[in-house]
Amino acid sequence: MTPFLDELSWRGLLHQATEGADAALSAGPVSGYVGFDPTGSSLHVGHLVQVMGLVHLQRAGHRPVALVGGGTGMIGDPSGRSAERNLLSLEQVAENAASIRKQLEQFLDFSGPAAARMRNNADWLMSVTLVEFLRDVGKHFSVNYMLAKDSVRSRMEVGISYTEFSYMLLQAYDFLQLNQRDGVSLQMGGSDQWGNITAGTELVRRSSGQEVFGVTLPLVTTADGKKFGKTAEGTSVWLDPARTSPYQFYQFWINVDDRNAGEYLRMFTLMSRGEIEALDQAVEERPEKREAQAALAIEVTTRVHGADAAAAAREASRVVFDKKADVRALSVPVLEMLRAELPHTMLPEGSEVSVLDLLTESGLVKSRGDARRQLQQGAVTVNGRRLGNEELVVARHEALHDRYFLVRRGAREVALGVLPST
């Protein structure tokens, strides 16, 4: 097996490949593409399997092409969907495509001999006429061929519009155009894209007689069979920090089930086989230390948000979940990250801070009476120092960086009091 497909295989990233793909990849550098739907302004972690496919393609010496569906994004792929998408304007799609490009730059090298390329299928789809399309593309596909594809057949009972029915042909036309314009001979996508990909290989063969190839990557699920990429609350985990903060992003990965940790390390990081196997062993022998999850979280967060944000997220996470963490060593960026994530209250200026006010106004307790009880039980710490049962105030000079009071009730209830900036 060619090094590229072998790499995908051991990492659990290879689902299917068309006949001849291995030989073509072994013969020399190829250009291969993945399509991204620009109906949103950000990719989410569910896209990372396809992104990592392009990463490994480039690392193997081939040229990755990221195709943004500026034209098809106005329609939407019916694969895996039970209802039709809302249509977007060209302006919306262009904005989203620009945002996606910036996110892909965190993964792909857009310079050098195997420089990644970005393409937008609006460049050819928005100018082609219906008569041209029917003459050059539609004639190559029977309705029976299209109805046999899973993406269409699964929608037949609930209904599928002619617009979405045509999506397969539009994606096939993308492959033909990329082949003619950029010499692209490989398309990759999720396993639910097999029908669309093989339609593209068929169109190129019938139009030009050239053999092109397809590779599909697996659809990832969690250990309990749920769709990958959702938080416990059911919300998507986005790469855009304005939609999913670096802290929340880190938390998604650090909380991965032990049963998925090794699998996700293979799929979503560039760690070596030996490093990952050592972490597999750590999961077996020391599961309580969550070493594999920690490595996964820092690797992926660094890739997406940068080393500084990843380090801050790691420190913030330790403070929240480890009551023995050294609070006084926290930097201002970490404290500001915690301020955005934790319950917090703004404190008045003065030489002392009321502990009762700090507990109640931050929401850690419901009343001042409850706050007193927590103090009497020895359950309250401020900036890492456990308070006595009659210690109702803390001095202003105890503030971290002259502004912050991290208050903890019990093991996991944490909040922040913040003094006005000077």
Describe the structure using short key phrases.
single chain, 422 residues, alpha/beta, Rossmann fold, Tyrosyl-Transfer RNA Synthetase, Structural Genomics Hypothetical 15.5 Kd Protein In mrcA-pckA Intergenic Region, Chain A, 3 domains, 6-stranded mixed β-sheet, 5-stranded mixed β-sheet, 19 helices, 13 strands, 13% strand, elongated
CATH topology of the largest domain: Rossmann fold
Mean pLDDT, as a whole number? 90
Count up the domains: 3
Poorly predicted sequence stretches spanning 5 or more consecutive residues: 80-84
Q: What is the overall silhouette?
A: elongated
Strand content: 5-15%
- Number of continuous helical runs: 19
CATH architecture of the largest domain: 3-Layer(aba) Sandwich
Taking all Cα atoms into account, the compactness measure Rg is 26 Å
The helix fraction, in percent, is: 40-55%
Derived from helix and strand composition plus strand pairing, the structural class reads: alpha/beta
Distance between the termini: 64 Å
Largest sheet: 6 strands, mixed
